[in-house]
Write a structure and sequence with these properties.
Layout lengths: L4 E2 L28 E3 L4 E8 L2 E4 L2 E4 L4 E4 L22 H4 L5 E2 L10 E2 L3 H5 L4 H4 L13 H9 L5 E3 L25 E3 L23 H5 L3 H4 L4 H4 L17 H4 L14 H5 L10 H5 L2 E6 L2 E4 L8 H7 L4 H5 L5 H9 L6 H4 L2
Antiparallel strand pairs: 1-2, 2-3, 3-4, 3-5, 5-6, 7-8, 9-10, 11-12
The chain binds heme C (HEC) (7 copies).
One heme C binds next to helix 2, helix 4 and helix 7.
């Protein structure tokens, strides 16, 4: 999480976008870029105008290695109603910077540090923060709600409780500090059940990236006090997505037939796929990649619920079975599920 924002004058290698071939979307040059933003899924380009930053209207799709337009259309995100249509009049101070820096001061429009620094999760501590042995706030010692709020402050779609703040509309939780209750500052974007919105699928699962918090609070694991940090170590690991353990191992820390959270029976009894099949990976069925980050690049859901093919038929939400078995119908998947001894037809909608 440490290197999202970089200054290309200091780190020319930070620029991932291909500026060598002229492209009509790319109306700016490398020299115009004050900061690059992002490395994993997409890269956006910031420029300084006056005392604020603005994002150029083209972004680099890292996975597909191609330029795509960057523009949040009117009637999509809530704030498009209160900002000019012109991309270059939508400042990052109000719309981005609070989540991509530490101690962002809305009066001076400056942070103490760009990117996700220690203090963003451990609290403003000055000298304390410099001494890692004595963090001001240790999320491990907070109650469950406050501990996950530390992550949800950035990993969610929402709106400040009070907006505008000093005449300007913000899209990040201004004033929140680790240890606070985030809900005093921030309300999560709501789902409208039965309706597909900018942020949600009709069943309430998130539809957009950066909604891990919106999803996670809906599930049993959140309720039982399993924290984001049970699966991730945001200080860094050698595994995909900062996971503590790779593959199913991150789940089998707590899940097996002999442990209370289940699932009951062996792996293959539960999944009805061969043990080494893609169809036996927990994430394949419980965390389908249905949340769009850019173009066809999606991130995984965090409700952990299994979305039945019957729900897809009724509400148009993609389900994991048919997403993987692309040549098969929802009905095929439902018939298969209903023949599995591990599954109750009353629940999946037989
Ligand atoms: C993205 C959030 C985040 C960032 C950034 C972060 N930490 Fe942490 N840190 C945590 C969480 C969450 C815990 C509690 C871990 C747990 O649940 O076991 C923690 C625990 C710790 C602990 C253990 C505290 C104890 O007393 O057991 C130390 C030390 C620490 N962090 C140091 C740092 C330092 C130094 C940095 C900056 C280089 C940093 N952290 C950045 C989230 C973060
Ligand atoms: C200051 C905002 C902020 C906070 C607080 C924060 N994150 Fe993040 N997180 C980010 C950003 C920005 C990225 C994208 C990083 C990138 O592009 O490399 C990210 C990425 C991640 C990733 C994906 C990394 C990858 O390589 O795919 C995980 C997992 C993650 N964060 C977990 C956490 C957890 C757990 C916490 C709470 C302990 C937390 N984050 C707190 C901003 C934040
Ligand atoms: C509420 C906090 C928040 C706000 C506001 C926010 N971001 Fe992010 N951003 C994140 C988090 C968390 C991630 C990583 C997780 C994800 O994308 O699912 C991220 C990811 C990104 C990435 C992708 C990083 C990569 O490596 O692919 C880019 C680019 C980005 N943000 C740019 C912006 C811009 C530009 C704005 C303002 C228009 C903005 N963000 C506003 C929290 C925020
Ligand atoms: C730190 C322990 C822990 C870890 C790690 C963990 N779980 Fe859980 N899980 C639980 C607990 C506790 C419950 C709640 C059990 C109950 O209510 O009886 C649960 C419940 C569930 C449920 C059923 C309830 C629901 O919300 O749908 C699913 C599905 C699930 N976990 C999937 C996973 C997956 C997939 C992983 C790995 C990515 C994972 N879990 C990792 C502890 C954990
Ligand atoms: C092929 C798809 C598939 C895979 C892979 C899968 N599950 Fe499930 N899982 C389901 C279905 C279907 C249900 C039942 C959902 C319902 O009834 O609402 C379920 C239910 C659960 C439950 C709650 C019911 C129970 O039996 O306790 C837990 C916990 C769970 N799964 C954990 C896991 C874990 C952990 C993994 C990886 C080891 C995993 N699942 C892999 C399809 C899958
Ligand atoms: C039960 C385990 C578990 C919990 C709890 C959990 N995650 Fe994840 N998370 C995962 C797994 C597994 C992945 C997928 C890694 C992959 O794609 O291989 C993931 C992926 C991510 C990613 C990267 C996006 C992607 O799909 O590649 C981010 C960001 C993230 N988690 C943030 C969070 C935050 C924030 C919380 C708490 C609100 C959280 N996670 C809670 C297991 C968990
Ligand atoms: C991540 C991909 C993936 C997911 C998700 C997945 N499967 Fe599969 N499935 C496979 C693969 C690969 C095979 C081939 C045999 C094997 O590996 O077990 C297979 C085989 C099957 C078979 C037997 C062979 C056939 O084509 O008739 C059935 C039935 C089946 N899956 C049903 C389901 C159902 C129902 C679900 C949802 C609960 C599901 N699968 C989810 C990948 C997946």
């Amino acid at each position: 999480m440490a290197n999202v924002i970089r200054d290309p004058k200091q780190h020319p290698e930070a620029i991932l976008g291909d500026f060598s071939i002229p492209n009509p979307l790319v109306t700016f040059t490398k020299e115009d870029v004050t900061f690059t933003y992002g490395t994993k899924w997409k890269q956006r380009y910031f420029t300084k105008i006056g005392d604020d930053f603005f994002v150029f209207p083209a972004q680099w799709d890292v996975r597909n290695k191609t330029w795509r337009p960057y523009y949040v259309k009117h009637g999509t995100d809530w704030w498009t109603a209160v900002y000019p249509a012109d991309q270059m009049q939508r400042p990052t101070s109000t719309l981005c910077d609070g989540c991509h820096s530490v101690n962002y001061d809305i009066k001076t429009k400056t942070p103490t540090e760009w990117n996700v620094g220690c203090e963003k999760c451990h609290g403003a501590g000055g000298a304390h923060a410099a001494n890692p042995k004595a963090p001001i706030v240790n999320p491990a010692k907070l109650d469950d709600v406050r501990a996950d709020d530390v992550c949800i402050q950035c990993h969610s779609q929402g709106q400040p409780r009070t907006n505008p703040i000093e005449g300007r509309y913000y899209d990040w939780p201004v004033g929140y500090q680790p240890g606070d209750r985030l809900s005093k500052f921030w309300k999560l974007e709501e789902a409208h059940l039965g309706e597909e919105t900018f942020t949600h699928w009709p069943d309430g699962t998130a539809h957009k990236n950066r909604m891990q918090g919106n999803d996670y609070v809906q599930g049993q694991m959140y309720l039982k006090g399993v924290r984001c940090h049970a699966c991730h170590d945001s200080h860094g690991t050698k595994h995909e997505a900062l996971l503590r353990l790779p593959g199913n191992a991150v789940c089998t820390q707590c899940h097996s037939a002999v442990l209370q959270p289940g699932p009951r029976g062996s792996l293959t009894f539960h999944t009805q796929h061969a043990a080494d099949s893609e169809g036996s990976k927990c994430v394949s069925c419980h965390m389908p990649a249905i949340q769009q980050t850019i173009a066809n690049v999606n991130v995984r859901s965090h409700t952990f619920k299994f979305i039945s093919p019957a729900v897809s038929e009724r509400e148009g939400v993609p389900n994991p079975c048919a997403s993987c078995h692309k040549d098969k119908s929802n009905q095929w998947a439902l018939d298969a599920l209903n023949s599995w001894p591990s599954v109750s037809p009353w629940r999946v909608g037989g």
